[in-house]
Specification:
Layout (H helix, E strand, L loop, with lengths): L1 H8 L20 H8 L15 H5 L4 E3 L2 H10 L7 E3 L16 H18 L4
Parallel strand pairs: 1-2
Length: 124
């Protein structure tokens, strides 16, 4: 969801999504697709992929959802330190993964994604 929201605000930037525990090749969750469709955003073509060193090296900035993700990436690839930040960095919050949870949790995650985007505006 964060990839689609960010891309909608910065269409000229290259925005890619990858996870550290992603289900490779799997489509976005149906609830995420529905919530973003409400905003006129299409997640239909999205497929999960794992973060790897190649993608990391192509990225000027890596935004993660949780502090634990940041720590894991920086431990795995120490040269990434200084380019990895939490989506909620500026207001000090994590965006919990709503996977396998209900619509309420997806809506809460999307609201935090919106809040994080507002905090990042002007810094990207």
């Amino acid at each position: 969801m964060a990839e689609a929201v960010l891309r909608s605000h910065y269409p000229a930037k290259t925005v890619r999504s990858a996870g550290i525990g992603a289900l490779k090749g799997e489509p976005a969750h149906e609830t995420a697709i529905a919530l973003l469709r409400e905003r006129g955003l299409d997640l239909g073509a999205h497929r999960g992929r794992q973060l790897d060193e190649s993608l990391l090296m192509q990225s000027d900035l890596v935004l993660v959802m949780e502090k634990g993700h940041q720590k894991w990436i920086e431990a795995e690839w120490p040269h990434a330190k200084g380019r990895v930040f939490r989506w909620g960095h500026w207001s000090d919050f994590d965006v919990p993964d709503p996977y396998r949870r209900g619509e309420k949790e997806f809506r809460e995650a999307l609201a935090l994604i919106d809040k994080g985007l507002e905090d990042w505006k002007g810094r990207l």
